[in-house]
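seq:
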Amino acid sequence: FVEGFRAGAEAYDPSVNVTVLYVGESFEGFGMPERAGALTRELRAGGVDIILMIAGSSNAGIVDAARETGDVYLIGEDTDQSYLAPNLVVASVVKEIDAIVYHAVENEIMGRFAPGQEVWTLEDGGTGLFISPRFDEYARVVADWRERAIAAEKDYLKTAAP
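struct:
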């Protein structure tokens, strides 16, 4: 998520500054909403205007702090998170788990299932960007950038460790 966000932001505006902060050193960071809120306040004090929330249940702290500071947009993760703050969550980077599970079950039923690793991408519908209903006017941006994002993802996957 981080590298995709960084690459997309820099492709849109090469002068953009992407700051990456981690809520915790390991999995505990996914359950520390107070810490996530403090980091959000720190980011806002530094002028950050878009925050990609990839902190699991800690996202609640990000949303709470964003409501306090205002004038910031959020991007959720895994599923549509616009319900957390309809006026702040512009989009969500989603994992299409239902399609992936359907594919695995279908392969098993058809006798084609083979254990192992599969990589699902933007191109095959394994991931995507969901635009929150309140921000439908930005849906054209997703359509305009889709092919570039697919190409960038392919390039990244060529160099990523197996």
